[in-house]
Specification:
92 residues; mainly alpha
Amino acid sequence: MAEPGASSEPGALSERDRDILEFERQWWKHAGAKERAVRDRFGFSATRYFQVLNTLLDRPEALAHDPMLVQRLRRLREARQHARSTVRRPGR
């Protein structure tokens, strides 16, 4: 079952997808925490939003739509993944 706003056309970004990319481009302009802005704008929990965003970042259509933003977000994601994988745990 597709989510509301998801594209029904293969290979095309939906309005929701484009809105998510626009939000990521300027979310810091919104007052308050990002999680609150996500819930207010998209009606998603933060967890669901990041699942949708991460899937979107892997799509070639997103890269074609806004290459600089998508590459920046991919680099940030990779840096966070690397940081999580190299955290030393006490006693190990």
